[in-house]
Amino acid sequence: MENGGGLADWRRQGGRQRQNVRKEFAPEAPKKTRRGGKEAGVWRREAQQIRLRTIQYGRYRPRGLHQYQFRPERFSDDEDLVQTTTRHRIFGGMIELGLGRIASLLQQTPLSWQAIHIAGTNGKGSISACLSHLLAAGGVRCGRFTSPHLIDRWDCITIDERVVQESLFRHIEAQVKLRNKTLGIGASEFELLTATAFEIFNHERVEVGVVEVGMGGRLDATNILNNVLVSVIAKIGLDHQSLLGNTIEEITREKAGILKPGVPCVVDGTNAPEVISTLEQYINDLNLNAMFVHSDVSDIQSPLLRQIFEKLDLQPHQQANMCCAVSALQLAMSKLRPEVDVDTLIPHLDGVEWAGRLQNITLEPLVARKEPILLDGAHNSQSAEVLGAYVDRKLRSPQSNITWVIAASRGKDLTELFHSFIKPGDNVATTAFGPVDGMPWVKAVDPPELATCVQSILGIGKVKDFDGDLLAAINWACEQASGGPLVIAGSLYLVSDVLRLLREAQAGKESHVS
């Protein structure tokens, strides 16, 4: 290929080349390749050949790509970026990590706002919610971008604590998708969503965007940010190992990829020692100003924050998240509004809401049960342990077992996830969440597989499989609980489906009354 070719031409020719490679090496994938077997081994070898050929092709790209580099300190040159991205495109299914495509999408769109960038396995969303709430209270026009969305695809984007209007979201999304198609970029769904969020922030003239990493950090689309006020590293644990690494140190290195020279950072100091030591290496190498936050050290935080902890009866992980948010706010406001006393904003934390995280809600009018239930999106071992500790402390008693409604995404360690909070004597309804808008690669575990996992718990109570009928599962669970503790957990996508059902039931009731 001639180096003078345009980006779109290179994309199209690259696509044709990859198709030819796939046809040559892998005309048809064997159906059963999950566990061993000769066919699976052959297919893996052919996939490796495809990978090597595709990476080799990545060396012959137009020099024009060098004109746009957001993160030169992270890559020796653009070839490293292309190779890393290609590897994840092949072995990561539809989850495509890398900065090349998002850079192309935003090439002509300078970001007019500063960012607070948040990475971590758990706690990112809570920290984001606290930060945007406090910034808005401090008079800073603030946007927030989190993932995944809760009910509607656009509710992951807020402006001054209000979900962006659907009409504006669809208008800017259409522009981004047209650019993607015209330039032949081939961006992933998350990259399109990220570009849409960032351009909405431009359109709404926000001063600060609070941005949550989608997955990992180093190669996440959000890491295209180049005007960051503060970086935040929340609690890190094992999750998405197939993409981020099999050890906590490997995953930490991916998360630490958001750290930038000259940008101060806040770290959840309650992280495991191996996480802290890995982060310290990065922080020392970059010579960063870093705050390691511990919620149990009273002299670090304002007495007002301690009062909030007591008033809201927050769990240790919630306290740590709130401390991270306040510390990040202090760093940001010292640049944005140095005249503002951050302590005066802390009482506003009383009004922060973050749905689907230890959330107590009533299910009326969806079902007849009047007692509140607990809704939690725990979906990895770390968050499952937190949920289990909360349930044991707040809900479980010798006289009262727990009734559960559970679902999970494929690829999770089901035993590690559910055995940490489901105990002998508990009753369990297994179900599945529906298709996730904008995330077609996300699939639910088959309910019978979940049931088998739960039934292996010695002394378990009743276990019933409801396939994908979530409402039937909830009704059965309400009957079994009979007013006692009921918890819905295992996936944020399950939380979304519950809240969507509840919204539809409430809308139906209102229309019937009118």
UniProtKB/TrEMBL annotation:
Keywords for the protein's UniProt record, in alphabetical order: ATP-binding, Ligase, Magnesium, Metal-binding, Nucleotide-binding, One-carbon metabolism
An example Gene Ontology molecular-function term: ATP binding
Compositionally biased spans, kind Basic and acidic residues: 21-42
BP-aspect Gene Ontology terms: one-carbon metabolic process
EC number in record: 6.3.2.12
Main EC class the enzyme belongs to: ligase
Region (Disordered): 1-42
InterPro entries in alphabetical order: Folylpolyglutamate_synth, Folylpolyglutamate_synth_CS, Mur-like_cat_sf, Mur_ligase_C_dom_sf
Pathway listed: Cofactor biosynthesis; tetrahydrofolylpolyglutamate biosynthesis
GO CC annotations on file: cytosol; mitochondrion
Keyword Transmembrane appears in the UniProt entry: no
UniProt keyword annotation of Magnesium present: yes
Record-stated family: Belongs to the folylpolyglutamate synthase family.
Protein name: dihydrofolate synthase
UniProt source species: Aspergillus wentii DTO 134E9
